[in-house]
Structure formats: C-alpha cells, structure tokens
C-alpha cells in the first residue's frame, strides 16, 4: 500500500520538498553518465512535468509568502497544486518506481530525498504492535499575532519531551468562521498540517482578518491508527 505522507500536504513542507526533489532528479549520475531520473524508469516527459510542478510551486509561494498581500486565492492555488502533484504521482507511480529500483543504481539518497521508505532499505520492519489506547490531545492557543496563531498541542498521557509512546504524527485541523459565529460542524474542519515539537504555526490571508479560527487535533500512532479528536479551541484572527 503506497504511503500517503511521502509528498507533504502542508505548504511549508511541500515547497522545499519540490525544490529538493526537482534539483535531485535532474542531477547527473556519473556511473554511467545519465540524468538521475533515468535510473528509476522515469521518462523525460515525467521529469519535465516534475520540474514544471516545482516552477509553479516557487512562483505561487512567492505570492503566498508575502503575508501583507496574501490572498485566499494564493493559498487555494497552492493547495490545488499539491493535489495535482499527488494525483500525478498516483497516475504515473513516480515515487513507487523509485522504491522498487534496485540498489544500485538506486542509492539511499534517492529514498531519503523523496521520503520513500516502504520497500527500501530505509523501511523499519521491526514490529511495533501496541494495544495501548491513543489519547486525545490537549490543544491551546499559545499566542495570537498578526495573521498568525501559535497553536500548542500536547499529550496528556506523556510528561516527558516528545510526542509520547507510539505516537507518530500530530494532526492539526482548522475551520474559519465569521466572528462570533457558532462553533462549526465537524465536516467544516480541514487538515492544515502537523504540529512539530508540540507547536503549529497557523497562518492566514489578509481577507481572514476579523474572523475566528477553530482548531482540533488528533494523534496517529506507529501502526497508522488514529485516535479521537481533541476538544476544539478558537481565537480571533487579527
């Protein structure tokens, strides 16, 4: 079963991923001299299409990264591009081709650059089965800044550093409503990214000012199972 996290779904990680992988796939493998993408069975057209995706990502991120002038369209266009890249990979199996390429000609750097683990030497085949229940996270608004919320997510069952035992991912979901509107329905929330080191930076377009943002989070364990959602919290967008 293909991994769903190889291509990042959040904007901040997606853009550098496209930059790194495009630079890498178009590099020259000297043994024998040939474009690196040819080692994996990519066609020249697929290589060019990947380069075009990266070029679009760079262009869209230039607009998105200007928080003062960022529009909702800038954000939506980047999310649409992420979907296009994911759909293209599903159709052409580009990352799967990398994972099934023998070593050599494939190298560990190939797998690491493209976040490909399953079926490669990077895969952890040690069983990690656990019947321990997955806790619901605790979510708080740590800080409110201009067009940014600093959201804290913690594990109530873990007192040390890190996410806690058997927790692999901390998903953050968000909904935006008019100011002082009622709490949004569950289906109004969208996945916006992963909390890193217990913190998620939630950013907005200028058009979102004076609205409210609502958050909830859930844990994913090392077996790929999800826990329940946290209690929701909200804050005004300033």
Largest sheet: 4 strands, antiparallel
Radius of gyration based on Cα positions = 20 Å
Percentage beta strand: 15-25%
Runs in which pLDDT lies below 50 for 5 or more consecutive residues are: none
- N-to-C SSE string, H for helix and E for strand: HEEHHHHEEEEEEE
Q: Looking at the structure, what is the overall shape?
A: globular
Q: Would you kindly provide a written description of the structure presented here, covering whatever features stand out?
A:
With 238 residues, the protein is of the alpha+beta class. The protein is built from five helices and nine strands; from the N terminus they run H-E-E-H-H-H-H-E-E-E-E-E-E-E. The strands form three sheets. A four-stranded antiparallel sheet has the order 6-5-8-9, with no helix packed on it. Strands 3-4-7 form a three-stranded antiparallel sheet, with no helix packed on it. Strand 3 and strand 4 form a beta hairpin. Helix 1 runs antiparallel to helix 2 and helix 2 packs antiparallel against helix 3. It is globular. The model has no long low-confidence stretch (mean pLDDT 89).
